[in-house]
């Protein structure tokens, strides 16, 4: 049975493995150089305190590659579900070969067990290798990323660490199960993609924020957490907006970032701005007064009592969250596996 | 002796549609059985049930005295259109058979492939329909089954390939003692190889028996017009046709026909089967159409 599974599967296995290997090789070759540049840059910037600017420049340079690598890793499990999972049973059903193989001396339960076990294992191993290589390669970039692409944010979190293993196992078994229900390859692939994408969206929006209670703290305003400062033409009202970043908490996943006025009321919700009681015609926050930099303006605002209130998951929760999420996907995978065995005994022709 | 196949009120339902219903049948051991019936009669469903590929929705089914499903190693099954893996070579198929069956006869398989002149390294997708069917038959035979089930194995073959396939099947059954059940909607195919015949129409077994015995006990009577109730009671009417002056009956009887008014002609197997198929009641036909839909 193992022989047959491998004989049928080896073509696509070798092809996918080759693509993953080439990707891993490219990252393995470029990774040390990247880390080296980062280390030298950090060593240089700490002496004169220009690290923020170095991070921006460094990340800017590699942002496209960073995003592409992340998306490739996010796409890998979906690819495995679509092209390994969905056709596994439907192709047999469409060509009628299930009747050939199921009338040999091996029960169809064992047939499915070997198929799921072997191909599932290859899928998980592939995702594991890809996940760890990408995590290692992108470490310098994760250290310098803009807040929108911080390591804990949903898009990046899913393309790091061990969760790709969980995604791959889940997507593969999902494809197989959907294939058994739909019985035709193309609709099964489409449905697999839709369901997998829905789960992938639902997880970070509905489930992951509640793994543990997020941290809620108030922070002084500064260059890190203020996203915009607008002074109306010719002076007058000053409006500021806070952004989804927390000072001293690089890599954090900010769920909400709001502006509090001196009495502690929320005056600007996420992504909105609000007027603050400083002068726009003179003083540290006016166009003339801020020529030397905005630091005096932040000081003035903080003295008045304006604060950012941030709700976030700090980077320290990265690995716990990775394991929790991998565990959830493992449970989902087991559930689908059980369903697929039930289907092959009860429902399938 | 346990029959190779024994069905009682057997039924299979897909959703609300019955593919087979109320089917009662017994096929004794030691025969090459032909299962014949129109399309949609439930032949494929019955054979899939017997091969353990489906589970019955109702009724009872025994194959070789056991429930199908537990009989997997003892029952060979060649499905409709004789499916094989397009991407695998002939040799791969033999390896598949060897790896997946305990009683695999590698010698028989290799000899047959050599005899057929198949190139072991050829991909199955490049085989002709006849060669594909022969390969599927080889897999079924080399498994050394006690019962080999074939579902319309020759339906899609040209006449020559059809004859070669049936020839190969006959040779195999002559050499070894195992039961065969094969279905076809063409009686001529079955006539050549079968010594037991089952006529299945709308899930119902209209007649089942040894071919020789059936042919010996069925007669066509042609003569002056006569009503059915005036026939002797030992003559079971299978079909009747009347013109103004003439009546034609197909009857079944174990007794000799002595009435000199009749011209008695023997039936071919095809005539016999068609006589039974014609006979199905109008209500039954309607139900049959519904089943088809």
The gist of it:
The complex is a heterodimer of chains A (349) and B (293). With 349 residues, chain A is of the alpha+beta class.
- Given the helix and strand composition of chain B, which structural class is it? alpha/beta
Question: What is the H level of CATH, i.e. the homologous superfamily of the largest domain in chain B?
Answer: P-loop containing nucleotide triphosphate hydrolases
Fold-level CATH name of the largest domain in chain B: Rossmann fold
The DSSP helix count of chain A reads 10
What is the tally of beta strands of chain A?
7
Poorly predicted runs of chain A are: none
Mean pLDDT of chain A: 91
Q: Class by helix and strand content of chain A?
A: alpha+beta
Q: What's the gyration radius of chain B in Å?
A: 21 Å
- Model regions low in confidence, pLDDT < 50 over at least 5 residues of chain B: 282-293
Instruction: Describe the main β-sheet of chain B briefly.
Output: 6 strands, mixed
Percent in helix of chain B: 25-40%
């Amino acid at each position: 049975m193992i022989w047959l599974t491998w004989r049928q599967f080896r073509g696509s296995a070798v092809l996918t493995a080759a693509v993953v290997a080439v990707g891993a090789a490219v990252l393995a070759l470029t990774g040390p150089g990247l880390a080296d540049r980062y280390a030298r840059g950090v060593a240089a910037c700490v002496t004169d305190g220009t690290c923020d600017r170095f991070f921006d420049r460094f990340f800017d340079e590699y942002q496209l590659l960073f995003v592409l690598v992340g998306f490739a890793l996010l796409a890998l499990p979906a690819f495995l579900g679509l092209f390994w999972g969905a056709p596994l049973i439907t192709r047999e059903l469409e060509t009628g070969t299930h009747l050939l193989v199921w009338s040999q001396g091996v029960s169809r339960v064992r047939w499915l067990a070997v198929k799921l076990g072997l191909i599932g294992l290859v899928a998980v191993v592939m995702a594991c290798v890809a996940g760890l290589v990408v995590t290692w390669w992108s470490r310098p970039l994760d250290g310098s990323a803009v807040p929108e692409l911080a390591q804990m944010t949903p898009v990046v979190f899913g393309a790091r660490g061990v969760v790709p293993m969980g995604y791959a196992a889940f997507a593969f078994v999902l494809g197989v199960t959907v294939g058994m229900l739909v019985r035709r390859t193309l609709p099964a692939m489409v449905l697999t993609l839709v369901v997998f994408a829905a789960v992938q969206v639902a997880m970070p929006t509905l489930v992951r924020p509640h793994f543990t209670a997020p941290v809620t703290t108030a922070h002084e305003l500064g260059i890190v957490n203020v996203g915009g400062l607008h002074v109306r033409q010719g002076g007058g009202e000053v409006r500021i907006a806070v952004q989804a970043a927390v000072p001293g908490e690089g890599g954090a996943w900010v769920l909400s970032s709001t502006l509090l006025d001196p009495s502690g009321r929320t005056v600007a919700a996420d992504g909105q701005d609000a007027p603050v009681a400083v002068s726009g015609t003179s003083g540290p926050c006016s166009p003339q007064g801020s020529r030397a930099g905005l630091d005096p303006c932040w000081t003035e605002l903080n003295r008045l009592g304006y604060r950012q209130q941030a709700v976030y998951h700090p980077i320290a929760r990265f690995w716990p969250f990775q394991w929790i999420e991998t565990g959830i996907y493992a449970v989902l995978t087991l559930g689908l596996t059980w369903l697929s065995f039930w289907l092959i005994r009860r429902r399938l022709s | 002796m346990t029959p190779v196949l024994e069905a009682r009120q057997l039924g299979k339902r897909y959703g609300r549609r019955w593919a087979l219903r109320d089917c009662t049948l017994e096929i004794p051991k030691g025969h090459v059985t032909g299962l014949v019936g129109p399309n949609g009669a439930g032949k494929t469903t019955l054979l899939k049930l017997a091969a353990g590929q489906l589970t019955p929705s109702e009724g009872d089914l025994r194959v070789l005295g056991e429930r199908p499903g537990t009989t997997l190693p003892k029952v060979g099954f060649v499905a409709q259109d004789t499916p094989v893996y397009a991407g695998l070579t002939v040799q791969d198929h033999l390896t598949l058979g060897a790896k997946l069956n305990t009683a695999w006869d590698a010698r028989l398989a290799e000899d047959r492939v050599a005899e057929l002149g198949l190139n072991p390294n050829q991909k199955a997708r490049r085989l002709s329909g006849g060669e594909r069917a022969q390969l599927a038959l080889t897999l079924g035979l080399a498994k050394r089954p006690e019962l080999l089930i074939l579902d319309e194995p020759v339906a899609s073959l040209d006449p020559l390939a059809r004859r070669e396939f049936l020839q190969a099947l006959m040779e195999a059954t002559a050499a070894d003692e195992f039961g065969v059940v094969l279905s076809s909607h063409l009686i001529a195919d079955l006539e050549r190889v079968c010594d037991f015949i089952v006529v299945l129409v709308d899930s119902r077994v209209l007649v089942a028996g040894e071919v020789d015995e059936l042919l010996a006990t069925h007669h066509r009577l042609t003569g002056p017009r006569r009503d059915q109730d005036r026939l002797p009671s030992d003559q079971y009417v299978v079909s009747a046709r009347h013109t103004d002056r003439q009546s034609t009956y197909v009857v079944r009887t174990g007794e000799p026909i002595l009435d000199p008014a009749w011209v008695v002609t023997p039936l071919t197997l095809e005539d016999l089967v068609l006589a039974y198929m014609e006979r199905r009641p109008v209500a039954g036909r309607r139900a049959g159409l519904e089943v088809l839909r």
